[in-house]
Design brief:
about 270 residues; alpha/beta; Rossmann fold; 2 domains; seven-stranded mixed β-sheet; 11 strands; about 30% helix; globular
């Protein structure tokens, strides 16, 4: 297991969140159509050339990496969890594609000048402390060749806090696995999220999963990107008032757009260049 850059609450929080497969039981695994749609957007936003070398950071179970490999890209996929990578390796083998999987803390990457593009998807950025978040961006810049591009999926500062609620749900098809959720806010530190308590009603076992993000304002994000040696090319969002989700069909590229980045957007996707 890779050593984390910090030993503070943020480090313990994200490590606890990704400690086992309960994260996927709660968060869910995207459908094949959703995976194809997300990868289609990545291809379009990054303007990927045939055979481009792509780094998928915090790849989880590797479904985006595997789809990118299916489309002919040379893919390296990195994640902190060896358990997740074990699943990803098996799925890649069954899909008949080659992906180079690496177990590493993404705040401690040592890859240099190797990639045409880097992708950090599914709201992972911001889960660490400020120092580690900045280290992730610096690592992305080092990993990119000059002129390479990065795509960073982040929570929208104005969108997430107002959606935090208490609630409960059962895992679909399993009445023994109960999830209790409650929103968390730390305005002084700019951290927002929610705690999930997973309870196995059959055994009484419990596991806490703290979802917590440091939500930066866009000028703060641009400064972090600039300080890391990249420049911000654009910001995409998913505000349905500006993005045509009604006519979108699964499998088509996700219709994120610059116009869709508003205070109502849930997503704030940064396109950066080295």
């Amino acid at each position: 297991m890779a050593e984390s850059i910090t030993t503070n609450d943020e480090a313990r929080g994200w490590q606890q969140l990704f400690a086992n497969m309960l994260f996927w039981e709660f968060d869910g695994i995207p459908s094949s159509g959703n995976i194809r749609s997300a990868v289609g957007f990545m291809e379009r936003a990054l303007d990927l050339a045939r055979g481009a070398r792509v780094l998928d950071l915090a790849c989880g179970l590797g479904y985006h990496a595997i789809e990118l490999a299916r489309r002919g890209y040379e893919v390296t996929a990195l994640d902190w969890s060896e358990q997740y990578l074990g699943v990803a390796r098996t799925d890649a083998q069954e899909a008949g594609v080659t992906v180079h999987f690496v177990q590493r803390d993404m705040a401690r990457m040592t890859l240099e000048d190797e990639f045409d593009a880097v992708v950090l998807w599914r709201n992972t950025f911001g889960m660490m402390c400020d120092d580690a978040n900045a280290a992730v961006l610096r690592g992305m810049r080092r990993a990119l060749r000059q002129g390479g591009r990065a795509l960073i999926d982040t929570q929208n500062y104005t969108g997430l806090p107002e959606r935090l609620e208490r609630g409960w749900s059962f895992k679909e098809g399993n009445e023994n696995l109960l999830f209790l959720t409650e929103g968390t806010k730390d305005v002084r530190r700019g951290r927002f999220g929610f705690d999930v308590l997973a309870v196995d009603l059959a055994t009484g076992k419990r596991h806490r999963m703290p979802y917590s993000w440091r939500l930066y304002l866009l000028p703060e994000l641009e400064k972090l990107v600039t300080d890391a040696g990249m420049r911000l090319l654009g910001v995409y969002g998913d505000d349905p008032a500006h993005v045509d989700w009604k006519s979108w069909r699964r499998g088509e590229p996700d219709p994120y757009s610059p116009e869709g980045f508003t205070d109502k957007a849930a997503k704030r996707i940064l396109l950066c260049e080295a």
